[in-house]
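STRUCTURE:
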């Protein structure tokens, strides 16, 4: 690794339309904080940059639904997020926001430089326009029928029933979500970043120059580059965001994907007038901590923007994590299936480090991982309490009991003593190697090995027995135990900062830098330690049961959500109805469609024939439980190819208020081919 004078660490900007949850923490903020604290302990110059992403369509939709302004929404959630991070101990040097003047000015200047130097291309295209509200419609402001599966609630960018990516003009019967009217197509001009022009450079810079990047990051980058890069619009027709700073773009704003990463630059400007040394000095190392959904933006798009601008450094590494699930299910903000940070801080006061520990020990570093409350309890009780807390408590209690809290002098060392003391430096090396390579789970395990070493040493030496016959030997043993404890305050500082501050108070010991780690005489003989308290406390079953119940109350509430039926469609005449041929059929084969999340391929005995039907129900039904089940099938629907499979009909489903699907079937067995009338 090249030598650098300083390190700039950026963290993905959380979207300010809701609070922070444990998925955000595990993926981005806990590892970034560990790394920043580690570098500070080493005496290195480092800044940790964060802020709220406050632009984009989801915020305008939330504001519309709540009858408030977008600024009201971002003010509320920026405040909640910033305060939660502060209480949790994420050690940002600055936590900014993209609705600030300094950000608007910075993003405008960045765009203007690229515009003035001809780095964009202009394109005129047709986009849906709401004539009543006199505005162009973002993709998420348009709904209609999916052309691929027939789902009525598809958005202009994606069908959430079959998972297909869409463009608004593909929707059948499109409607504006603002007025409910049918939108019209109208020409509009936008500016695009021609990513294809940077393809060869990206291939060399990433695929040849950064083979050390994490496998999941490198692999995703390679896939994108190999697939060919397309031009991407940097402007959009919206009334919330950074106004495009050119006269011919009046009423347009910068696309949120373009302005958000510039938020790292504007936040650094807010922090210091010397911001350029962090962004333009080649002796600065820049690291982006993000989740896997942001890899393309931070490895391909933002670097292309920086390359186009010409005066900025590029990221040295992007140690992205995968996703954290919750109790075996995907975290979902819309379903409230999450552990929210601000709620955790209220319900588990003084246990910030417990959550940091669990999220680090179970971090989704190269694949998705799962958080469960039972694992949270087990790691607290079996590791923090039984290993670390137990060792510290025994050491300090025995020091008080035998020597009145005064550190005893070190006597003659045995081979066992020398071996134990030598292992402190060995453990330090392992922790450093892991941290330097962004392997935080592994580094925490090695750091905890120091407490395990101390516990084993105490158990082997049994000072409570030896004190009766050899007090001098016990002095040496307890001195070594106290040296291990003092080293723990350094090696665990990046991971458990609140707890190590508490432990230093027990030891009456000042904070030491990383260089002191491995020193076997950190605490001098004659030093007086304070009476200890418990470093960690057990978490009882009833506390965990309450959290699990809270989650499942949420799930039950979602299941019982009040149904809001869509309005009836226009009347049809009886002859039209008579054309519909719905039969009872039995599913005889079922399998998932490869490379899709929502599609199942079914073979159905309709009583007329056996036919293949592709249905978007894979999220709600496992293939094996469907075999032998009766369904209602529309048999005279024109065949349509879905993912290369010809679908010869459609099974009838009821869509629930939460978007889930339930198969419509006879309440008792009927003959295959029976007509539904």
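SEQUENCE:
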């Amino acid at each position: 690794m090249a030598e650098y004078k300083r390190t700039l660490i950026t963290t993905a900007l959380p979207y300010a339309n809701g609070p922070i949850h444990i998925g955000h923490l595990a993926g981005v903020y806990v590892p970034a904080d560990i790394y920043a604290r580690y570098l500070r302990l080493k005496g290195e110059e480092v800044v940790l940059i964060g802020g709220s992403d406050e632009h984009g369509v989801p915020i305008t939709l939330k504001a519309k639904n709540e009858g408030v302004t977008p600024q009201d929404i971002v003010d509320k959630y920026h405040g909640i997020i910033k305060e939660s991070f502060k209480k949790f101990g994420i050690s940002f040097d600055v936590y900014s926001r993209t609705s600030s003047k300094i950000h608007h000015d910075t993003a405008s200047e960045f765009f203007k430089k690229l515009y003035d130097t001809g780095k964009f291309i202009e394109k005129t295209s047709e986009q849906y326009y709401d004539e009543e509200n006199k505005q162009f419609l973002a993709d998420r402001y348009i709904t209609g029928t999916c052309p691929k599966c027939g789902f009525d609630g598809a958005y202009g960018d994606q069908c959430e029933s079959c998972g297909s990516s869409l463009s608004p003009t593909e929707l059948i019967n499109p409607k504006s979500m603002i007025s409910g009217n049918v939108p019209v197509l109208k020409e509009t001009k936008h500016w695009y970043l021609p990513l294809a022009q940077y393809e060869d450079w990206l291939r060399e810079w990433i695929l040849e120059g950064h083979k050390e990047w994490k496998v999941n990051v490198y692999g995703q980058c390679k896939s994108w580059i190999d697939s060919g890069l397309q031009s991407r619009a940097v402007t959009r027709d919206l009334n919330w965001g950074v106004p495009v700073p050119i006269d011919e773009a009046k009423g347009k704003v910068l696309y949120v994907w373009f302005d958000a990463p510039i938020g790292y630059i504007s936040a650094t400007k807010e922090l210091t007038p010397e911001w350029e040394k962090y962004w333009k000095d080649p002796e600065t190392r820049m690291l982006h901590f993000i989740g896997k959904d942001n890899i393309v933006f931070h490895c391909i798009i933002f670097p292309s923007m920086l390359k186009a601008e010409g005066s900025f450094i590029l990221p040295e590494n992007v140690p992205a994590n995968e996703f954290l699930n919750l109790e075996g299910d995907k975290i979902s903000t819309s379903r409230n299936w999450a552990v929210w940070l601000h709620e955790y801080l209220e319900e588990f006061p003084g246990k910030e480090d417990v959550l940091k520990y669990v999220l680090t020990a179970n971090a989704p570093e190269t694949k998705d991982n799962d958080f469960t409350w039972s694992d949270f309890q087990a790691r607290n009780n079996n590791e923090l309490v039984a290993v670390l807390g137990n060792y510290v408590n025994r050491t300090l209690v025995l020091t008080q009991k035998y020597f009145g809290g005064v550190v005893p002098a070190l006597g003659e060392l045995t081979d066992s003593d020398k071996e134990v003391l030598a292992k402190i430096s060995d453990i330090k090396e392992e922790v450093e190697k892991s941290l330097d390579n962004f392997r935080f789970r592994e580094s925490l395990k090695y750091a905890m090995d120091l407490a395990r070493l101390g516990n084993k040493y105490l158990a082997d030496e049994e000072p409570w027995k030896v004190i009766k016959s050899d007090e001098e030997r016990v002095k040496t043993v307890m001195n070594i135990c106290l040296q291990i404890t003092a080293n723990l305050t350094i090696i665990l500082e990046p991971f458990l900062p609140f707890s190590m501050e508490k432990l230093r108070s027990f030891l009456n010991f000042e904070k030491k830098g990383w260089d002191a780690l491995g020193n076997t005489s950190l605490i001098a003989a004659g030093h007086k330690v304070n009476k200890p308290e418990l470093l960690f406390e057990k978490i009882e079953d009833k506390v965990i049961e309450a959290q699990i119940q809270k989650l499942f109350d949420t799930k039950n509430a979602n299941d019982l959500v009040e149904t809001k039926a869509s309005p009836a469609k226009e009347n049809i005449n009886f002859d039209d109805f008579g054309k519909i041929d719905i039969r009872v059929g039995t599913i005889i084969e079922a399998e998932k469609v490869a490379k899709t999340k929502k599609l199942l391929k079914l073979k159905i005995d309709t009583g007329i024939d056996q036919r293949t039907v592709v249905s978007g129900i894979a999220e709600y039904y496992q293939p094996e439980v469907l075999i032998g089940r009766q369904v209602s099938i529309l048999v005279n629907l024109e065949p349509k190819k879905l993912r290369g499979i010809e679908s010869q009909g459609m099974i009838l489903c009821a869509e629930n208020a939460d978007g889930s699907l339930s198969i419509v079937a006879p309440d008792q067995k009927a003959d295959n081919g029976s007509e539904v009338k």
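REMARK: Residues 377 and 541 are 8 Å apart (CA to CA).
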